[in-house]
Amino acid sequence: MKILVTGRDGQVGWELSRALAPLAEVTSLDRSGLDLAKSDAIRTTVRAFRPDIIVNAAAYTAVDKAENEPELAQAINEQGPQVLAEEAKRCNALLIHYSTDYVFDGHKASPYVEDDQTNPLSVYGRSKLDGEQAIQSAGCRYLILRTAWVYAARGKNFMRTIMRLARERPELRVVNDQFGAPTSAPAIADATASIVDALFKGSGDHGIFHLTAAGRASWFDFAELIVKASGPPYPVVHPIPASEYPTPAQRPGNSCLDNAKLARVFGITLADWRVEAQRILTGLRQTAPTPSQKA
After folding, report:
1. Looking at 98, 102, 124, 142, which residue is catalytic?
2. What one-character DSSP code corresponds to residue 231?
3. Residue 142 falls in the annotated catalytic set
4. What would the CATH number be for the domain defined by 2-150+182-213+256-271?
5. Where are the domains of the chain?
6. Backbone Cα Rg of the chain
7. pLDDT, tens digit (0-9, with 9 covering 90-100), for 183-241
8. Read out DSSP for 164-217?
9. Structure confidence at residue 231 (pLDDT)
């Protein structure tokens, strides 16, 4: 079995190379090897590799920047996945694609299930929803995995930003009225590998699934855990409403996703968000340079 992974240098793409390696022959490509903004290059690459599974971890993820770059966001998040889906159908491959909690408006009080009405508030959210719909319309076999608040030990993400700011500032102000489930890239990649293994063995199903850590947190909750686990100095973390931290793109107030379908169909349940966050933070502390090493 051959698996083609896009977005090799992204948070999830990087972890997928590790997680999928025991299952098949894996080829991972970065943007220079497969640019989702270039349709002809996508077709040429997929036809050359003829994979059994395509795992699309590439995406335009700059949520605020997308407000000023809607055409680029659409090219990468909608048009690119559409071409991947068309090529997957052509070579009878399964397409696994990652989407986002931002396809919802966050007005629902409880966690969102897969069939809930979508209503993205931002250019980014709209482009990701359009990508979902393009894949479904292409007629290929697909798995769309919606996840949320992704972080890892590498790359640009909330965890690493808070760790840096905690060393630079005595006080932090973090939004406390937007809720979701911080989900690590390693956990997403491991769950994807379990899904692939199940499908390879003849169990599971296709369609849209929610894939996030268990539990619920605000950005303030996540920041407090990061600060406390990162070691001194300990800045004071102040909770603030989102209205005091305006951003170009509007975010949903409730980003919590219901993962019951994933558990029912594949038997996969991710750990509580605190467990994986603590594990990642422990690894970062162990690899951080000491003051003497910095000098």
Report:
1. 124
2. -
3. no
4. 3.40.50.720
5. 2-150+182-213+256-271
6. 19
7. 999 999 999 999 999 998 888 889 999 999 999 999 999 999 999 987 787 899 999 99
8. HHHHH-SEEEEE-S-EE--EEHHHHHHHHHHHHHHHHTT----EEEE---BS-E
9. 77
